[in-house]
Amino acid sequence: MWGLVLTAVLAGLLASRIVPDKVALQPGDTAPHDIRARRSRTYVSAIATQRARQAAAGRVPRQYDNDPRAANEAGRLVSTVFNVISTEKANPRSPELSKRLAEAQQALPANVNLSPAVLKTALEASDPALEDLMNRTQQVVAQVMDSDIRSDNDSVDSARRMAQEFAAGLHLNPEATRLVSEVAKSAVRPNRILSVTATANEQDRAMRAVSPVEVSIQRDEVITRKGDIVTEQDVERYNALGLQHPGLDLPRLAGLCLFLGGVVLAASFFLRYYEPRIYKDLRLLRLLGILVIFGAAGLKAGYSFLGVPLSASQLGYLATLWIALPAMLAAVLINVDSALLISTLLAVTAGVAWEIEARYLAVALVGSLVGIYGVSRIRDRNDLMRVAATVSLTNVFLVVVLGLLYGDAHTEILIGMAWVLGTGVASALLFWLMVAILERPFGLVTHIGLLELSDMNRELLRRLQWEAPGTYHHSLGVAVLAESAAEAIGADALLARVAAYYHDIGKMRRPQYFAENQAEGNVHDNLAPTLSTIAITAHVKEGLELAKQYHLPPQVRDGINQHHGTSLVSFFYHQATGGEIHNDTLEQQFRYEGPKPQSREMAILMLADNVEAISRTVEKPTPQKIEQTIDTIIQAKLNDGQFDECDLTFRDIGGIKAAFVRTLVSMLHTRIEYPGVPGQDDAARAEGENGHRNGNGDHGTKDAPGEAAPPAPDSPDREPAAN
């Protein structure tokens, strides 16, 4: 069920590529911002196709039909002109030349316009000369009409210039040449007439021969820049990309859902077989899903960062943050394996659903690995900044290497370096914030939370220092031992140390009941063994109450609840039985309620608590004595079955023992005796007595000061140290 919910949420977040943002622009509008293509698309452009067809039609030459009558009509016109001139020349009614010129001008055809000088030359010429000029004009017109003269102004003008040239070639006097030229130019006419129908047919044939024009739009291509005027071609591109009238692409949405469902199913199988603890814990599964959704939501926000759509490279660099950050959170909130799973899942999803290039996914994955390694080893607050610096520098190195590999310009590489530096710093800041937000709702404690709890100035630890100073210093010693032992076997050393700080906070309610806090006198001298046991074992319950009051996380509360397990308060038990070796019914009244340690860290805490208390009673400690004491304590706990419910191995026990010996040898080194220092022996004796007093476990000792080192923890003479 949770897998279906996760798939649906992811599909909703990643469907932006399937339902693009709407663009309501028309030709002539001004683009309010850069409008980019969010996916690649090839489509048939009606506008580009029409333009190509019009261009093809424009290249088709005009079609003309022959006019067979044109030459004859041109010759008849020449004859008509010269006949008019001959008639006016012989006209007896117009003896005056000026009057004959005017009448001849009116008698000429409408399309013939001869100058007065030419008409005068013609009227004054003799009949044989006029006939010769007519013949020569017919000759010029015939020569010109033998060429192609199309029915357009350019062609006709060219023919008239040709007639003028032919007339000049006759070598007549200037007046006669002008007469022949003007008459011939008037007679020349087109002999090829434009055919509108044939031209249209050829243009139509040429347009049909043009194939539809396909236009390709690349992802992240700028269609219209901010401030540009929108054109019809821009609107066509909007429609092709589904921006103008966005709709749901059902096939693509179905493909996305199937892909995401497959990824979630594969992740479920991985968890089931390789991380059964997470698979069976609905709380951790929900947290894992929330982290995946968190990364996808970050990518969704980056898709249109601050309302400005990002380019493909910018979105790719932003992906380095939203893939690495959830993985880093998973590493500290759950475990490293889940972190690797999340980084892989997000990288694959981003690459397919958001079409992010492989180069950016490579930067994100490598950065995630570095971040996971870094945050899983955080031990102090400065480590977080070191992680941010390491992740940023690693990403910068990868950007430079991949930029050189892909042949990017230096400017692009510098921009990429700036982006990954910013995302590296942002990952550290967001990591710290998200850990603080997610820890408490899911009942988890991370190293960051543990670091905050390890601050010795916290109110609860300050109270322990002032109200139960002996217990406070005992807890510090236990913390040193527990941390060294946890590091030796690969357990969580920080958790062991912090749990040790708080494991005995319940003693603050009645500090005087515990030997390490007794300055003088022993309240147990006046109490029955059963009452003393109740007072001693109550510090566990009272510690849990304080832990709840101060909102300590569950793992630290486990240290309070489990550091005694179901151990026997042996001193008071043996006192109550009067030395009887074994009594099962009575023994249950002198045991802690438990539970037994459930993890390696809690088992280490139990041993460190006992070892720290007993070690104070060892006189003139040597490595051999310390090792023997530790062996006795460990064997007693094994015999009592206190480690039956945790995954502590014999190899672990050997490592814990070696760490305890190494740490105690350095802590309990023999003091140098300085000659001439008065009272040195008395001081040493007093220190030894104090060591006996502070090493008596959870009860006040009834033994006299100066008693020898205690016997084995489960002996009838003394309770095992279990502070």
Quick overview:
The protein is mainly alpha-helical and about 725 residues long.
Task: Tell me what the structure shows.
- Helix 5 (116-124) crosses helix 8.
- The protein is rod-shaped, with a radius of gyration of 53 Å.
- A hairpin with a 2-residue loop joins strand 7 and strand 8 (308-309).
- With 723 residues, it is mainly alpha-helical.
- It has helices spanning 2-14, 46-58, 70-89, 97-107, 116-124, 127-145, 153-168, 174-187, 196-208, 232-241, 250-274, 276-279, 282-303, 312-333, 336-353, 358-375, 381-406, 410-439, 447-453, 459-467, 469-489, 493-502, 529-549, 554-562, 570-577, 584-587, 600-615, 623-639, 650-667, 680-694, and strands spanning 35-36, 41-44, 64-66, 192-194, 214-217, 222-224, 304-305, 308-309.
- The protein is built from 30 helices and 8 strands.
Features:
723 residues, mainly alpha, two-stranded antiparallel sheet, 63% helix, 3% strand, rod-shaped
Secondary structure layout plus pairing:
Blueprint (H helix, E strand, L loop, with lengths): L1 H13 L20 E2 L4 E4 L1 H13 L5 E3 L3 H20 L7 H11 L8 H9 L2 H19 L7 H16 L5 H14 L4 E3 L1 H13 L5 E4 L4 E3 L7 H10 L8 H25 L1 H4 L2 H22 E2 L2 E2 L2 H22 L2 H18 L4 H18 L5 H26 L3 H30 L7 H7 L5 H9 L1 H21 L3 H10 L26 H21 L4 H9 L7 H8 L6 H4 L12 H16 L7 H17 L10 H18 L12 H15 L29
Antiparallel strand pairs: 1-6, 2-5, 3-4, 7-8
Helix pairs in contact: 1-11, 1-13, 2-9, 3-4, 3-5, 3-6, 3-8, 4-5, 5-8, 6-7, 6-8, 7-8, 11-15, 13-14, 13-15, 14-15, 14-16, 14-18, 15-16, 16-17, 17-18, 20-21, 21-22, 21-27, 21-29, 22-24, 22-27, 23-24, 23-25, 27-28, 28-29
